Amino acid sequence: MKDLKALIRGVPDFPKKGILFYDITTLLKDPEGLKQAAREMLEPFKGERIDKIAAIESRGFILGGIIACELGVGFVPFRKPGKLPAQTIREEYTLEYGTDCLEMHRDAVSPGERILVVDDLLATGGTAAAACRLVEKLGGVVVGCTFIVELTFLPGRQALPGRRLHALMEFDHE
Amino acid sequence: MKDLKALIRGVPDFPKKGILFYDITTLLKDPEGLKQAAREMLEPFKGERIDKIAAIESRGFILGGIIACELGVGFVPFRKPGKLPAQTIREEYTLEYGTDCLEMHRDAVSPGERILVVDDLLATGGTAAAACRLVEKLGGVVVGCTFIVELTFLPGRQALPGRRLHALMEFDHE
Lengths: 174, 174
Fold this sequence. Notes:
- Chain A has about 170 residues and is an alpha/beta fold.
- In chain A, about 25% of the residues lie in helices and about 35% in strands.
- The first copy, chain A, has helices at about 25-30, 30-40, 60-70, 125-135; strands at about 10, 20-25, 50-55, 75-80, 90-95, 100-105, 115-120, 120, 140-150, 165-170.
- The first copy, chain A, has a single domain, classed as Rossmann fold (3-Layer(aba) Sandwich), CATH 3.40.50.2020.
- The first copy, chain A, is globular, with a radius of gyration of 16 Å.
């Protein structure tokens, strides 16, 4: 068993001065770390019915694909506006300044399907909350959301009240 | 065994009028299709030494992660400019109008490492060619490039002379 937290690299002043960025690429390039992360992200949801993995563009795609294969279920993407070619639904969410948007194909989720939402990072929770709303708009059931990293100095959990959230590690400071 | 080509959806007039877009999301959401695609993308490179999977943002990440886990190797991303937090190298490539850019972390590949490049689509080949150059700039060896879809009405193979290229299916018209 690897210490996954030790595989994360802190990069100072990215994307801007004063921000410490938690870089997961150093974990992803470690063969054991990659497999173990996928296994542990799934751990609390094991034994439950999960019909699909829905992952958030773009770092969420890496672990999302692996987890879908591991479970033997299909993979569906949440994407930024204009990237998905067929009929979509859309949810806005608030950023520090202004708003952003997430889209999902209308046929990505069928009513009653149980969906596990995957992303790399739980920060303010806005993106994950929008992702959950998209699943529910299509009649799906959100089993929970699973992340590699949770930034506990940001109010991510408050943005996702009543959701089952799982993260492999926490960072409590920028 | 699934007919993977039958799982691809043609979406007319996306991203613009007159273009038929080959949508892989209908393959990704099929549990067997997803697994089989990963297996078949790796097929011609089996039995060779591959040290890492390098996948192109963002649809390449989905199969890239799965193939890395399947092989038991690490995963490294190629990303659009400004997304990777640590020290990067960069390669430009030509688009229909203007140029675009791909980046890779300097520590993503070590000299002598053998890299399989993964993306969803071989179209003009510009992005994949830039990806190969990035690997070689860092002293890596490109084992080959593997794709889900090849658009044979575009000159993708000409952009990648001498490279080992593999695609699961071809489409010969827009």
